[in-house]
Design goal:
CATH topology of the largest domain: Peroxidase, domain 1
Shape: elongated
Strand order of the largest sheet: 2-1-3-4
CATH superfamily of the largest domain: N-terminal domain of the delta subunit of the F1F0-ATP synthase
Helix content: 55-70%
Distance between the termini: 49 Å
Order of helices and strands: HHHHHHEHEEEH
CATH class of the largest domain: Mainly Alpha
Strand content: 15-25%
Largest sheet: 4 strands, mixed
Number of domains: 2
Structural class: alpha+beta
Length: 181
């Protein structure tokens, strides 16, 4: 049976409320990000997600990995997810938490996809342009997709700016097809 997609959101909301109450918003974010990296390792996941292993052994692995490296409340959340058989939702919880934190701080999330990796200067220039368009601070995530051929696409919320060579070629094709009818 698949897990409901609202579970990560609910855990993230609860974590955000605790972090807000305790004034530890950034510590939670850093702790969740580190927990995702460490628990997401293939060998660790093989142990932690295996229901055939005793729960105490799985909890001990989590404790050895995270104790002293993440805040105790983050450790408790990871242990709870493992105990409830929902450890696979940890990355989604971290993403939802980051979204909620950004929203609270008025930061807009943008994803830039380019045909080749952007240099630091290019990423800075894109960030400035997107901030000017959005009228807000921007958290920029970059991805590479060689299928774009050249240029880039920028997604801010549900808006997409396509300045890729592939996009231009597709629009040209569409115009040519429409013109022949």
């Amino acid at each position: 049976m698949s897990r409901p997609s609202t579970a990560p959101r609910r855990y993230a909301e609860a974590a955000f409320e605790l972090a807000s109450r305790d004034g530890t918003l950034d510590e939670w974010r850093a702790g969740l990000d580190l927990a995702v990296r460490l628990v997401g390792d293939a060998q660790v996941r093989q142990i932690v997600e295996n229901p055939a292993r005793p729960a105490a052994d799985r909890q001990a692995v989590i404790d050895r990995l995270l104790r002293g490296r993440v805040p105790d409340p983050v450790l408790n959340l990871v242990r709870l997810l493992a105990q409830r058989g929902r450890i696979e939702t940890l990355p989604a919880v971290a993403v939802e938490y980051a979204r909620r934190l950004n929203r609270a701080r008025g930061i807009v999330e943008a994803v830039v996809v380019s045909a080749a990796p952007l240099t630091a200067d290019e990423a800075t220039a894109v960030r400035r342009k997107v901030e000017a368009m959005a009228g807000a601070s921007v958290e920029l995530r970059t991805e590479v997709d060689p299928a774009l051929i050249g240029g880039l696409t920028v997604r801010v919320g549900d808006q997409l700016l396509d300045a890729s060579v592939r996009g231009r070629l597709e629009r040209l094709r569409d115009q040519l097809v429409m013109g022949t009818r």
